[in-house]
Write a structure and sequence with these properties.
Number of domains: 2
CATH class of the largest domain: Mainly Beta
Family: Belongs to the YjdM family.
Number of strands: 13
Largest sheet: 3 strands, antiparallel
Protein name: Alkylphosphonate utilization protein
Strand content: 25-35%
Distance between the termini: 48 Å
Strand order of the largest sheet: 1-2-3
CATH topology of the largest domain: SH3 type barrels
Order of helices and strands: EEEEEEEEEEEEE
Structural class: mainly beta
Shape: elongated
Pfam family, one: Zn_Ribbon_YjdM
CATH superfamily of the largest domain: SH3 Domains
Length: about 110
């Protein structure tokens, strides 16, 4: 019989197998047992093409983006150098055309 591992997030022993995933009923974490799990809490952010982004990368906008509360539009093809990854709703902190902005990774590609 296969031994079901404890939850990697909360270490609960009450995990169960659901299809191809393991599920923790206490913290609602789901994970694939066939994927490698990182033991540290590194932030992994992928661009619109699935490329892994890291701090210091250069990115390019893939579509025009209107800034909230402003009439300013960031144009498709605008480049940001030396990005910083942050945890939260908007994963990228950078400067585009001299303005400090936070962007979602789905609107950029790695330069």
């Amino acid at each position: 019989m296969e031994s079901i591992p404890n939850c990697p997030v909360c270490q609960s022993e009450h995990t169960y197998h659901d299809g191809t995933f393991y599920v923790c009923p206490e913290c609602a974490h789901e994970w694939d047992p066939n994927q490698e799990t990182s033991t540290n809490d590194e932030l992994q952010v992928k661009d619109s093409n699935g490329n892994l982004l890291v701090d210091g990368d250069d990115i390019i906008l893939i579509k025009d983006l209107k800034l909230k509360g402003s009439s300013t539009v960031l144009k498709k093809g605008a480049k940001a150098k030396g990005i910083r990854l942050v945890d939260g709703d908007h994963e990228i902190d950078c400067k585009v055309d001299g303005m400090k902005v936070m962007l979602k990774a789905c609107f950029v590609k790695k330069a």
